[in-house]
Design brief:
There is one protein chain. The chain has about 120 residues and is α/β, with parallel strands linked by helices. It has one domain (about 10-115): 3-Layer(aba) Sandwich (D-Maltodextrin-Binding Protein, domain 2). It has helices at about 10-20, 40-55, 65-75, 90, 95-115; strands at about 20-25, 35, 40, 55-65, 80. Strands 4-1-5 form a three-stranded parallel sheet, sandwiched between helices. Strand 2 and strand 3 form a beta hairpin. The longest helix is centred in the last third of the chain and has 20 residues, at about 95-115.
């Protein structure tokens, strides 16, 4: 089979091939912070459980704000973002209708990729 004819890898296949789940987050008590006994926070615990389920290493990258998180996701430097729901307005509030539609399409595609790997 020609290399150009191969189907592109799903998000899950790329994560498994790389051996790590890359998650961007905010440094906040409800999301992610370094406590006395290492990484802590609700979003960290969820991401860590997900990485364990996938049997890959978790790489958390705290970023200064939602714009930096969006930039990392758009550039492909992260597989997902994890931030407490109180940040949703900050994360999505500045999106244009066009950007929101594009994000929705990407999320649907991403969900389809994950469900196809079940």
């Amino acid at each position: 089979m020609l290399a150009g004819c191969a189907q592109p890898q799903s998000a899950l296949q790329r994560i498994r091939a790389r051996g790590e789940l890359r998650v961007v987050t905010l440094n906040a008590p409800t999301s992610y912070y370094l406590g006395a006994q290492g990484p802590q926070g609700f979003e960290y615990r969820l991401a860590a459980a997900f990485a364990r389920q996938l049997q890959v290493r978790l790489v958390m990258e705290p970023l200064p704000d939602a714009a930096a998180m969006r930039a990392a996701l758009s550039a492909g430097r992260a597989d997902m973002a994890a931030a407490h729901e109180s940040w949703v307005d900050e994360l999505l509030g500045g999106l244009s209708v066009r950007d929101a539609e594009q994000m929705s399409a990407k999320l649907k595609s991403f969900r389809s990729d994950w469900e196809g790997e079940a």
